[in-house]
Amino acid sequence: MSVTFGRTDTSVLGRWWWTVDRWTIAALLLLIAVGALLTMAASPAVAERIGAQSFHFVRRQFVFLAPAVILMLGISLLTPKQIRRTAVIGLLISLLLLALVPLLGAEVKGARRWLSLGGLSVQPSEFVKPFFTVVAGWMFASARLEPGFPGRIIATGLFGLTALLLLVQPDVGQTVILASIWAVQFFLAGLPLIWLAVLGMAAPVGAVVAYQFFPHVQSRVDRFLDPSAGDAYQVTTALSAFRNGGLFGRGPGEGKVKLVLPDAHTDFILAVGGEEFGLLLCLLVVALFAFIVLRGLSRLVKEDNLFVVLATAGLLVQFGMQAIINMASTLRLMPAKGMTLPFISYGGSSMLALALGMGMVLALTRTRYGREGLDA
C-alpha cells in the first residue's frame, strides 16, 4: 500500500491511516487474494458438473470481492460508539431475517438457511454472528462497569434467542460458534465460579443432546468414529488430495479432486489448494489465520476499554474458530461440518459478513487519541 498521508494530517483518512493496524489489513488482503486464486482453481469443474458455464461461480464470487474489501475498510473508519450503534441495528435486522428463514427459506440438504432477497440468496446466520458479538460484548462490559445494569441477563437472553433460531434451521455448527463467543466474553468479563462450573457441565450435555435430537449430527459423528458406518467419500477424497499434492503440489490446473468432489469450491476448497499448490500453500493459509488472530489479540494487551476488549476478542474467536472447524473437518480431525473457510470458500454472504466482522476488528483495535478516544 502506498501512502500519501503525513503524520500531521488531521483528515479522517489521515487519522485512519496512522491509527489502523496496517499489518492486519495486509494479511487480510493476502488471504482474500489466496481465496480468489483457489476459487478460480476449484469452481470451474464444479460449475461444469452441474451444467453451468465454467466461470459461473468465479464471476459470482468476484462480484462480492470489491464490495467486501470496501465494506471492511469503510467499517474500519468508525469509532467504537458507531460500531455499537451499527451492531444494534444490524442484530435486530438479522434476527428478523433469521425468524423468517424457517417460513420463507429455501431447503437445501434438509436445512433451511437461505432467504431470497432481490434475486440474491442471503444467509442471515452469517451476519448475525458479528452483530451479536459486538452487542453481547457491550452488554457484558456495561454490566461490569455499571452495577445494577442487567447486561449479563440481556447478553444471555440474546444468545438463547439467537441459538434457538439457528437450531430451528437446523444449524448446530453456527450455534456452537455462537456459544463459544458468548462463553469467552462472559469469562473475560468476570465469570463467577458457579457459572464456570455450570458451563463446564453444560458443554458435554449439549453435545449429547445434539447427537440425540439431530440426525445429521448423529450421522456425522458416527462416520467420524467409524468411516465404514456411512458415506465418508468427501473427507476420504480430500485426504487423498493432500497426499497427492505433497510439498509443492501438482501444479495449477493439474488437480483431480475438484473433478469429483461436490463441495470442492466451498467446504473442501483447502483440499484443492493442497493438491494443486501443495503443503506450502496450506501452511501459508494457516499462518495467515494465526497471524490475524494473534495480532488482533496483541493489540488488546494495553487496551483499557472493556467493551473493546470483549467485542474484539469475540470477533477474533468467531474468525479463528470458523477457520479451525473448516480445516479440521477437511483433515478428518473432527466430524464433518459444512462451514466456509473465511475469505477463501465460495459464498457471498460469508464473504460480506466476514468483511463486516474484520472491519469491526480493525476499527476497535485502532490507536485512539484525542476526540476518537473520547468517542470510545
Automatic annotation (TrEMBL):
<keyword id="KW-0808">Transferase</keyword>
<dbReference type="GO" id="GO:0071555">
    <property type="term" value="P:cell wall organization"/>
</dbReference>
<keyword id="KW-1133">Transmembrane helix</keyword>
<dbReference type="Pfam" id="PF01098">
    <property type="entry name" value="FTSW_RODA_SPOVE"/>
</dbReference>
<comment type="pathway">
    <text>Cell wall biogenesis; peptidoglycan biosynthesis.</text>
</comment>
<feature type="transmembrane region" description="Helical">
    <location>
        <begin position="86"/>
        <end position="106"/>
    </location>
</feature>
<feature type="transmembrane region" description="Helical">
    <location>
        <begin position="277"/>
        <end position="294"/>
    </location>
</feature>
<keyword id="KW-0132">Cell division</keyword>
<keyword id="KW-0133">Cell shape</keyword>
<feature type="transmembrane region" description="Helical">
    <location>
        <begin position="343"/>
        <end position="364"/>
    </location>
</feature>
<protein>
    <recommendedName>
        <fullName>Probable peptidoglycan glycosyltransferase FtsW</fullName>
        <ecNumber>2.4.99.28</ecNumber>
    </recommendedName>
</protein>
<dbReference type="InterPro" id="IPR013437">
    <property type="entry name" value="FtsW"/>
</dbReference>
<dbReference type="GO" id="GO:0005886">
    <property type="term" value="C:plasma membrane"/>
</dbReference>
<dbReference type="GO" id="GO:0008955">
    <property type="term" value="F:peptidoglycan glycosyltransferase activity"/>
</dbReference>
<keyword id="KW-0812">Transmembrane</keyword>
<comment type="similarity">
    <text>Belongs to the SEDS family. FtsW subfamily.</text>
</comment>
<keyword id="KW-0573">Peptidoglycan synthesis</keyword>
<dbReference type="GO" id="GO:0009252">
    <property type="term" value="P:peptidoglycan biosynthetic process"/>
</dbReference>
<keyword id="KW-0472">Membrane</keyword>
<dbReference type="GO" id="GO:0008360">
    <property type="term" value="P:regulation of cell shape"/>
</dbReference>
<keyword id="KW-0328">Glycosyltransferase</keyword>
<feature type="transmembrane region" description="Helical">
    <location>
        <begin position="149"/>
        <end position="168"/>
    </location>
</feature>
<dbReference type="GO" id="GO:0015648">
    <property type="term" value="F:lipid-linked peptidoglycan transporter activity"/>
</dbReference>
<dbReference type="InterPro" id="IPR001182">
    <property type="entry name" value="FtsW/RodA"/>
</dbReference>
<feature type="transmembrane region" description="Helical">
    <location>
        <begin position="62"/>
        <end position="80"/>
    </location>
</feature>
<dbReference type="GO" id="GO:0032153">
    <property type="term" value="C:cell division site"/>
</dbReference>
<keyword id="KW-1003">Cell membrane</keyword>
<feature type="transmembrane region" description="Helical">
    <location>
        <begin position="306"/>
        <end position="331"/>
    </location>
</feature>
<keyword id="KW-0961">Cell wall biogenesis/degradation</keyword>
<dbReference type="GO" id="GO:0051301">
    <property type="term" value="P:cell division"/>
</dbReference>
<feature type="transmembrane region" description="Helical">
    <location>
        <begin position="175"/>
        <end position="198"/>
    </location>
</feature>
<keyword id="KW-0131">Cell cycle</keyword>
<feature type="transmembrane region" description="Helical">
    <location>
        <begin position="23"/>
        <end position="42"/>
    </location>
</feature>
